Amino acid sequence: MTPSASKKYNCIIVEDEPIAAEILENFILRDQELNLVGKCADAVYASSLLSIHDVDLMFLDLHLPVLKGFDFLRKVKNPPFVIVTTAYHQYAVEGYELDITDYLMKPIPYDRFLTAIDKFKHLMEAEDALLEVSERDFIFLNSGKKKVKIVLQDIFYIESLREYINIHTKTETLTFKMPISKIEEALNPKMFVRIHKSYIISRPKIEVKSANIIQVNGKKLPVGRTYKPLIEL
Measured between alpha carbons, how far is 27 from 115 in angstroms, rounded to an integer? Predict the structure, then answer.
């Protein structure tokens, strides 16, 4: 792929140490797919950058003046992917709860930066998963750099796990980073029905049906109250 055809990911640096910010900027400039749209030293300025630019990735230092990194992140609506930069080890658990993409310890080695960027790109490409529907008998989902063909007849049910979905088929369980609502839009409602905020089932695969439980492939799945009217359609 030529550089001109490369996908560009917008990123910002939120870092109050000038040397650390400069090191990150130099790392970013080495990657033709990364486009640095702004640098700032505090959460207030970071908020304005996020409102001005369509940001895909934020490098976030935790020890910011006034408002700390994680406190800032909790206030951001629809945050971009986040790679945390810190000199302290103790925040990993909190970062896990906030779904941080990766955790870079200062001073940041370049090879460790590359690992974090590879992880981000993989997640970004998976989240961009384009649903391609052909004659309604199969769909393609993007997983990293490859397209995965899923035959609709093979699907038993789809399960939501936070920002991921598991598609349970006859032979395997496939995982994609995308909201369950996105795949729901692409499925034929005559064949598939949402029975719960966390589950979509294949109608032909229903084995047992009651008011509160539907069994598919031997698995008993709960029926959400708001979805009960849909199941009767």
Answer: 12
* DSSP-assigned beta bridge partners for residue 220: 215
CB contact at 8 A, 196 and 227 = yes
Tell me how far apart the alpha carbons of residues 135 and 218 are, in angstroms, rounded to a whole number. Answer: 29
Pairing of strands 57-61, 81-86: parallel
Q: Where in the chain are the domains? A: 3-127, 132-231
First to last CA, the chain: 48
Q: Hey, is 97 helix, strand or coil?
A: helix
Angle between helix axes 18-29 and 110-127 (nearest 10 degrees) is 60
Q: What's the pTM value of the predicted model, to 2 decimals? A: 0.56
Tens of pLDDT along 59-110? 999 888 778 888 898 888 878 999 999 887 665 555 555 778 888 999 999 9
> What is the CATH topology of the domain spanning 3-127?
Rossmann fold (3.40.50)
For the structural domain made of 132-231, what CATH number should be given?
2.40.50.1020
